[in-house]
Automatic annotation (TrEMBL):
It comes from Candidatus Scatomorpha intestinavium. GO terms for molecular function: oxidoreductase activity. Residues 1-60 form the FAD/NAD(P)-binding domain. This is FAD-dependent oxidoreductase. Coiled coil: none annotated. InterPro entries: FAD/NAD-bd_sf, FAD/NAD-binding_dom. Pfam families: Pyr_redox_2.
Length: 78
């Protein structure tokens, strides 16, 4: 079974990981996002824009490579 998930912020990565966890090798899961970053703390963006958080990497929870390695999900970003 092939499954495509569009979007890789909180809901997309959570859905992809859950599908892969429940279906295992039965599912080939591909996540597609136009963003280069995934799993970022969107609620922290105003703090980054306002200069309270200076390094935007502090908002990142995961990288596409580490997420793919942890879950077995294929990522297409950017």
């Amino acid at each position: 079974m092939k499954i495509i998930v569009i979007g890789a912020v909180a809901a997309g990565t959570k859905a992809a990981a859950k599908i892969k966890r429940e279906l295992g090798n039965e599912a080939e899961v591909l996540v597609i996002t136009r963003e280069r970053d995934i799993s970022y703390a969107g609620c922290g963006l105003p703090y980054y824009i306002g200069g309270v958080i200076e390094d935007r990497s502090e908002l990142l929870q995961n990288t596409p490579e580490s997420f793919a390695g942890l879950t077995g999900v294929t990522m297409r970003c950017g």
